[in-house]
Amino acid sequence: xxxxxxxxxxxxxxxxxxxxxxxxxxxxxxxxxxxxxxxxxxxxxxxxxxxxxxxxxxxxxxxxxxxxxxxxxxxxxxxxxxxxxxxxxxxxxxxxxxxxxxxxxxxxxxxxxxxxxxxxxxxxxxxxxxxxxxxxxxxxxxxxxxxxxxxxxxxxxxxxxxxxxxxxxxxxxxxxxxxxxxxxxxxxxxxxxxxxxxxxxxxxxxxxxxxxxxxxxxxxxxxxx
Length: 225
Description:
This protein is α+β, with helices and mostly antiparallel strands. It is built from eight helices and five strands. Strands 3-2-1-4-5 form a five-stranded mixed β-sheet. A hairpin with a 6-residue loop joins strand 2 and strand 3 (about 85-90).
C-alpha cells in the first residue's frame, strides 16, 4: 500500500496508475476505524456464503496474514480462526507481528480471490509479492480457489429480493470502472509518453557514443602497436 512501502522489512512495490490509486489518494485522510464496518460485513458474508474457506484454514487458525493492496492507504490483517475470524483494517502493519504477507494491486488481489488468475504466474511476473510463511499463503489460496467466490454476486445477496437489480447495478459500475481505467491509462501515456520516447532516444544515442569510443580506443591501440 502507498504508506506501507516505507515500512521496514516490507518490499516496496509501485502501484499502477488506475482509478483504484485515485480512490486510495481520496481515502488517505480516512481513519481505518471508519472503514472497519465494511470489512466486518465482508467477513460475515464470507462466513455465510463460503464457510468452507475458514474450515479449510483451521490448521492455520493462529496465523496472522497481512493482505496489502498497494494502491490503497491501508492493509488488512486476517486471522482465519473458524470460530472467531477477524479481518482488521490497519494503517500500518509491523512485519514482525504477521506470519505472512500477500501484496499487490487491489484488482489483482480480487481476481486472485475469485480464482480468475493464476497466482503462480502473478508471482513470477512480480505482480504479486508473497513474504513470510508460504505454507499458510498456499493453504489460503487453495481454500479460496475451491470456494467459487463472486464478489459482485456475494454482495448483491445482501439486498435480498433486490439482489438481481443490485447485481446488475454493480456490473454496470464495474464496466464504468473499466472505462475509467482505460481513460486513466490514456492520460498516463499522454503525460509520460514523450518523456519515455526522449529517454529511449537518449539511451540509443549513448549506446552509439559508447560504440564510437570503443572503436576509437581500438584504433588508438592499433596505432601504438
